[in-house]
Design goal:
The protein is an alpha+beta fold. It has 3 helices and 4 strands. The chain is globular.
Amino acid sequence: YGLVGSEMCIRDRAMVMLDIEGSLENREKYYEKIYALRNILAEEYSLNLNFDFNFLLENGKEISRIYIEKQNISIHNKNTWQSTMEFFVENMQKFESFWSEYEDFIKEDF
């Protein structure tokens, strides 16, 4: 399967994301399953996520990306370093808890 969880800083924002790669068919299946759980993600995990089925990477590759971001922070700015790290820790833990609970459902039929 092509699911990759990660975090990154871009200029003045930080993101925690789940990228879905692979064939269009598999991307659709994973994306739709996770999208169907969006209310659970928001209500039980306090993750108000952005869903982008056709996300274009800088290298031209198209993926699906599910992410949360925070503006005006950067790990490269010592004035926002603490809040950036807190954002990463808090949201990665929520993503990981969600994944632990729903991994079997998301992966079934694959």
